[in-house]
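Response to reviewer comment R2.3. The reviewers asked that we include at least one raw input/output pair. We reproduce the pair for AB hydrolase-1 domain-containing protein here without editing.
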Amino acid sequence: MKQNLRLFKAGGASLEYFEAGSQTPVVFLPALGCSGTTYKEVIDLLSQSCHVFVPNLYFSINNYAISRLEDYVGVLQEFIKIKKLTNIILIGHSYGGAVALKLAESNKKNISKLILVDSAGLPVPYSLTQLFYLLFVKTWHELKYTNQLSILGRLVWDFSFFVLKSLPQWSKTTKEIGRVAQETQIQFQNIHVPTLLLWGKTDEILSLEYAEKLHKLLPNSKLIKVEGNHDWLLFRYKEFGKLCFL
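Raw output as returned:
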């Protein structure tokens, strides 16, 4: 199904997002540096039965790039309000999962289900430098998907574009990434929406132990472990689609 790139503007915010499909609203929050193009196969699959919105998480307010969870949530709440979205299935992958958790914490009435895929949200036991090294390791591991190089190519291209676009404010961006990685910013006790955690058994960045901790903190959650690494849903998108609607 065709994905349409659109622009949302409100309160000084300028947000690009992809839209596809109809019926049940799904808001899909991608990993850091990724966009709707990165998840083309995932979005094509979901949009067969859902109305999918994929906001790019590198957007600006008054021409300044933002990176704070609170800023993301403020703009996304306005987006949901203007679009009149209700009974949303909210999906977050990696860094997008941290944003999804923060949004679910403060937007209880409009979200019917939360799906977290190898999601951030808790402090990690390593530095920002180590995090970027693990991102490299993750990408190296993904070279095994020789029959899906187009997916890997889009992933690398989109992340590289994000880095280039972020260079003018790289210090601010990395500072906030470090803040998310090192501090607990989510009030987990305020999240009661049914939550499904989908986790790659060989995740290089956020381990299964990390997933178990997150699972225990979310009172209405279920954890399913799947074959694959941090980005498994990109390469095993059919399995991901089935798991989303168990």
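The domain at 4-244 is CATH 3.40.50.1820 (Rossmann fold). Residues 77 and 107 are 8 Å apart (CA to CA). Further pairs are available on request from the corresponding author.
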